[in-house]
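Example 3.2
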Amino acid sequence: MPDYGLLYKEWKQNKALIVITILISILGNPLSILNMYLTYQGCVTGKEIWVGPCVFSVDYLNGTFISLFWIWGVVLAVSQLGIERSKVIMDFTLSLPYTRGQLFNAKFFTGGMIIVVSQLAGYILSVLLLVLLRPDQAVYFHHYSLGMIIVSLLAYSLVLAGGALTGHIFAQLLVSATVTILPFLLIILPAINLEILLGGTVEFIHGPVPEWVKYLFPVTYVVPTWVEDSPYYLVIPAIMTIIFYIIGYISFVKLSNERNGYFFLWKPLDRPIQVIVIIIGIMGFGYFGFAATESFAGYIFGMAAGAVIGFLISYFSIYKKTKHQ
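Structure, written as tokens:
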């Protein structure tokens, strides 16, 4: 367990955000149920028009406050690393008499406990509320409430790892957002371009795909339809959370602190990532050019535009320094 002094530092440094996150995480689930109950009461009293009879159903597929809980994991991670680094507070943090491993674990432990404990507290309050209100049915309540804890931890660990690899907030968010769709960029996009070049069909795109494959895309969890599938699939984001923790830990321990506002803390990543961005730009714009014109000429024009745009984006993102405050 991290040193109490480090935990207190994380608390003092992010006190307002932590309090807001805890309150929203605790109250979000019960308020979702109350909102559904008030809607039901509106039907009973005739204030709202329903199709069919009035039924008090707690249905988590109809949209709830907790569907956005993952955002607070992102905000916590940005505050703990991106903002701390951009405001040069990281120099003070690293000067404390602790190892880098202890510092990172204190951050991860603080954020993880805030997410898990507060959402569990909200879940328990919601269970008590369901016992009190006695809805006719509760659809996906347990699966969604407990699954969202894993999803929030995934978002938190992903963005925290992005912050450990990068030198400022924009880089942290851009890398994290890219990773959420990385399987598409590395597998589906090249296959689509291969179809265009060969004039045929790449079998695995159009053939049967196992249900669990979509869970390899972190962006899948932004939309709550994942709750319709087996809860055992949530093992995948749990494993990804551990992987991102390991990446973040190693990056924070091994890489030097960034004072110059560069994109990546590990400089050998600059050129390979730039090349990858350009290639993705070529394939992405090439596909859109082909789809828009339905011609190979449009495909070539799109590839040329993608090369230029990919170069400019990668150059100004990776090599242009961002001033710290």
